[in-house]
Amino acid sequence: MGKKIKKAVFPVAGLGTRFLPATKANPKEMLPVVDKPLIQYAAEEAVSAGIDVLIFVNGRNKRSIPDHFDKAYELESELEARNKEKLLAIARDVLPPRVSCIYIRQSEALGLGHAVLCAKPVVGKDPFTVILADDLIDSGDQPSCTRQMVDVYEKNHCSVIGVQNVSREEVSSYGIVDGEQITDKLWSVNALVEKPSIEESPSTIAIVGRYILEASIFDQLETTERGAGGEIQLTDAIARQLESGKVMAYEFSGKRFDCGNKLGYLQANVEYALKHEEVRDQFKTYLHSLIS
């Protein structure tokens, strides 16, 4: 029997320059979609998959992330004194009591691979998941994206990459999978091609911000040379894992919003607002008024 996935790594040290000036003093992962920050959606997705150790690899000026998941004594006391029970529950129940949060400083901005490597002392020899909070995935009535990928891992016991099918015109913006299709949603990976041209792309199966990784990835990351931009690339390390074991790519069920750019972030806010019990009816009326 393989080990259970109980730890999730959240690389949150990026500068979020696409959202300046909003991210000058506030991490992009704390940008709200309706009434919850992106990092909380990501944490909830991990918890829904049975994960109980959340490892945040952060940088300077990221205090608002641990503050968000910490107990807010003054706020809770004020809400309790005013008998605001519903709001008090929201403030207290950001995460279940069983979940532990661990914060690790990434001292240098050396890329996603380096951020994952920073988590090695906590992850140890266990398999783990990596979740990029700016890839917001709405799975609707289906299990969360991470839950789906955990199920794939438990059947195959190897690293699993989350992927989606993109248009030919978009392949140059993604890492692309070269592999053999096993089912309508699952591929055995032969190689990973970073941002290929349309003509050279082996497929339209693109890597998105969800990974389940065997602990052997740390050995690869420690010896992977810096790639584009002088950064340690996670995809380079996964490609090296292929030399000694298999890697699967899984096309999850759900809709991804690329909240790393303004358009995707705005689309997420609109679609989540249209499903939000408190505001959906009024918001729908407002949208109709704009196009009528």
| Overall pLDDT | 91
From the alpha carbons, calculate the radius of gyration and give it in angstroms.
20 Å
Query: Distance between termini?
Result: 59 Å
Biggest beta sheet summary: 9 strands, mixed
Strand content: 15-25%
Number of separate domains: 1
Helical coverage, percent range: 25-40%
| CATH architectural designation | Alpha-Beta Complex
Q: The CATH topology is what?
A: Spore Coat Polysaccharide Biosynthesis Protein SpsA, Chain A
Name of the CATH first level: Alpha Beta
Poorly predicted residue ranges: none
Which term fits the overall shape?
Answer: globular
| Number of E strands | 13
Summing up helix and strand content along with how strands pair, one would put the structural category as alpha/beta
- Helix segment count? 11
Classified in CATH, the superfamily is: Spore Coat Polysaccharide Biosynthesis Protein SpsA, Chain A
Strand order of the largest sheet: 5-4-1-6-11-8-12-10-9
Task: Spell out the key features of this protein.
single chain; 292 residues; alpha/beta; Spore Coat Polysaccharide Biosynthesis Protein SpsA, Chain A; nine-stranded mixed β-sheet; two-stranded antiparallel ribbon; 11 helices
Helix and strand topology:
Blueprint: E1 7-11, E2 32-33, E3 36-37, H1 38-48, E4 53-58, H2 64-69, H3 73-81, H4 85-92, E5 100-105, H5 112-118, H6 120-123, E6 128-131, E7 135-138, H7 145-156, E8 159-165, E9 175-181, E10 186-194, E11 205-213, H8 217-223, H9 234-241, E12 247-251, E13 255-258, H10 262-273, H11 280-291
Parallel strand pairs: 1-4, 1-6, 4-5, 8-12
Antiparallel strand pairs: 2-3, 6-11, 7-13, 8-11, 9-10, 10-12
Helix pairs in contact: 3-4, 5-8, 5-9, 8-9
